[in-house]
Design goal:
single chain, 632 residues, alpha/beta, Rossmann fold, 8-stranded mixed sheet, 7-stranded mixed sheet, 19 helices, 30 strands, binds 5'-O-[(S)-ethoxy(hydroxy)phosphoryl]adenosine
């Protein structure tokens, strides 16, 4: 493994100070641990107005030589990817570093054979099988820009993304297994390609044996193509600032943003953050339950772990198949040491009860992690006690698609944890809070808008094809700062607590209320499992507070439960935050990454439930129907 880890709190403080005093020197030292074809001319060149940020400009490298080739001598026979199938009866697959290298080189040759050149955009729409990681790395090896689209998106979302990046190749599979369902990926791809004329070739992996159409001249089978290539592939030599990938993320307007990450900075930061946050030790089995279709999967299933020479697990299935004990069973069977998941998964498994947890031996766990949304106090304690048995520090990692890597988090067992707090920025990350007037807040115990005032290596460089939108969204709100869109509180000890998107702020009778704040107050009620708050037009207060609440058990008397909930809100947040309307629901409209689609709830709450826009990215569109019927 490269470099040394931070080992105690004093180390962290020292390292942080160093990183602020001389960021160039700090990151240059980290960069020296990698394999470069040519060293950089200049460490950092930046301007947050244009904005234009370059790290290690003039350097030449290939990220896959750092993920794979340089490990071959020292850990060629170590498992790089440990894959667990959706179906518990299907055999798991262990792929060593040697085998992964061979697979990546072979598939890079397949890409070449199909006309791929450096700089081409390649869309990947695949299930969570090892070939997805192989496809990603093969693109990086040949210098093509991968754009992974989560395999739950609709054909329309897929064609929009292909068209936005003008991709010439689509890599997909006949189908994908998720729980007891088979997702017909090739037929969805066929629909998408009807509206995506830029696709010249479609490479299809056989996974489910679903019968599909293959279009002559356009569609080719992955396994047949492999028969025609050899397994040597000289990595394309890339410039530090050449794009590595595009990943789409939703914005406040409808059109998704193609976030662009580049090679060198992303490589250095994902490795550094991976080994420090999770305190990865030689031989550990690390499991991140995200999908590679999201940034968490890019940075902390594929790149960060492989750069660090780790054993990274990939799981094809879902937490509740065949039952809600699946995660815990996998942990027991594979002796997982580090487990990284999302609060939404934790809460939903908590709601299923301990009968699904207690049968399993979870004593291998050393570190737990969460990502993607604020974790409420109750879920934090459940995770800590029932899963970690009080012995495994929880890292609450705050970051974004745009930041490329973890920005604010405790370092497992090394820096202090605090429930519901992401705690402290990583070395090199110069965060700050901004007040109503756009001024930096210089004292603690206050809330503000979270910004970053100095570049870090893995930051996004642009939105593909729309640099103006990049500037407008992130760099124009506050001068010389990257604006995250999140609200944040810094407590008396300087610890950061993310309070949720500031675009979710509700102004009620002239008071600013954080939706996340009200939600966590309501979640304190013993019968409440999860809450989503949105605003709706209110003639007197400007905005009314509308609460959608999931209960553990159906209330005998809904009216008195509403009263109890509001008493709690009144007590915790203040009477101003009391919900005007409370609707009990059995589920919330969520994206597959667990984000509540507030846009939909806002429309329903404001009585405009006919025109809900695109709901194809929802995990379970049927909840919307139910919610519409119960409007208060
Ligand atoms: C939210 C996911 C609270 C936040 C890596 C951010 C969090 C958005 C946390 C980015 C956390 C992520 N605590 N909120 N630990 N982590 N968020 O782009 O609002 O899918 O802006 O990246 O998720 O989501 P994205």
């Amino acid at each position: 493994m490269q470099g040394n880890r931070i080992k105690n709190f004093a180390d962290y403080k020292k390292e942080y100070q160093k990183s602020i005093k001389n960021p160039e020197l700090f990151w240059e030292k980290k960069a020296e641990n990698f394999f470069w074809r040519k060293k950089w001319d200049i460490v950092l060149d930046w301007d947050f107005v244009t904005p234009d940020v370059k790290w290690f400009d003039g350097g030449k490298l290939n990220i896959t030589e750092n993920c794979l080739d340089r490990h071959l001598e020292t850990r060629g026979d170590q498992v790089a990817i440990k894959w667990i199938a959706n179906n518990p009866d299907e055999k798991a697959r262990d792929i060593t570093y040697k085998e992964l290298h061979l697979n990546v080189c072979s598939f890079a040759n397949v890409l070449k054979r199909n006309g791929v050149k450096k700089g081409d955009r390649i869309c990947i729409y695949m299930p969570m099988v090892p070939e997805l990681a192989i496809a990603v790395l093969s693109c990086a090896r040949i210098g093509a820009i991968h754009s992974v689209v989560f395999a739950g998106f609709s054909s329309k979302s897929l064609s929009d993304r292909i068209n936005d990046a003008d991709c010439n190749i689509l890599i997909t599979a006949d189908g994908g297994f998720r729980g007891d369902k088979v997702i017909p990926l090739k037929s969805i791809s066929d629909d998408a390609m009807k509206n995506a004329p830029s696709i010249e070739k479609c490479i299809v992996l056989k996974r489910t044996n679903t019968s599909i159409n293959m279009m002559n001249g356009r569609d080719v089978w992955w396994h047949e193509e492999l028969e025609n290539v050899d397994s040597n592939f000289d990595a394309e030599i890339m410039n530090s600032e050449d794009p590595l990938f595009i990943l789409y993320t939703s914005g406040s307007t409808g059109k998704p943003k193609g976030i662009v990450h580049t090679n060198a900075g992303y490589m250095i930061y994902t490795e550094y953050s991976f080994k420090n946050v999770f305190q990865y030790e030689e031989g550990d089995i690390y499991w991140c339950t995200a999908d590679i279709g999201w940034i968490t999967g890019h940075s902390y299933i594929v790149y960060g772990p492989l750069l660090s020479g780790a054993t990274t697990m990939m799981f094809e299935g879902i937490p509740t198949y065949p039952d809600a004990g699946r995660f815990w069973k996998i942990i027991e069977e594979n002796k997982v040491n580090i487990f990284y998941t999302a609060p939404t998964a934790i809460r939903s498994l908590e709601a299923k009860g301990l009968d699904f947890v207690t049968p399993y031996d979870l004593s291998s766990l050393k570190v737990l992690g969460t990502v993607g949304e604020p974790i409420n106090e109750d879920a934090w304690h459940w995770y800590n006690q029932e899963i970690g048995k009080g012995n495994a520090p929880i890292v609450d990692t705050w970051w974004q698609t745009e930041t490329g890597g973890i920005m604010i988090s405790n370092l497992a067992g090394v820096t202090p944890a605090k429930p519901t707090f992401a705690t402290l920025p990583l070395p090199g990350i110069q965060t700050c809070l901004i007040d109503e007037n756009g001024q930096e807040i210089l004292k603690n115990s206050v809330e503000g808008k979270l910004c970053v005032k100095f570049p870090w290596p893995s930051m996004a460089r642009t939105i593909y094809g729309d640099h103006n939108r990049f500037r407008e969204t992130y760099f124009s709100k506050f001068k010389n700062k990257y604006f995250t869109g999140d609200g944040c509180l810094i407590d008396e000890d300087g610890m950061y607590r993310i309070t949720g998107r500031v675009d979710d702020v509700l102004v009620v009778s002239g008071h600013n209320l954080g939706t996340a704040e009200i939600e966590s107050a309501i979640d304190e009620h013993e019968n409440v499992c999860e809450t989503a708050i949105v605003g709706y037009p209110h003639t007197i207060k400007g905005n009314g507070v509308y609460a959608f609440v999931i209960c553990h058990h159906q209330a005998d008397d809904e009216e008195s439960l509403r009263k109890e909930i509001n008493e709690l809100v009144s007590k915790i947040v203040g009477p101003i935050a009391k919900a005007d309307k409370i609707q009990f629901v059995s589920g919330l409209p969520k994206t597959r990454s667990g984000k509540i689609m507030r846009r939909i709830l806002r429309k329903i709450a404001s009585g405009d439930s006919e025109n809900l826009g695109d709901t194809s990215t929802l995990l379970d569109p049927s909840v919307v129907k139910e919610i519409k019927c119960g409007v208060q």
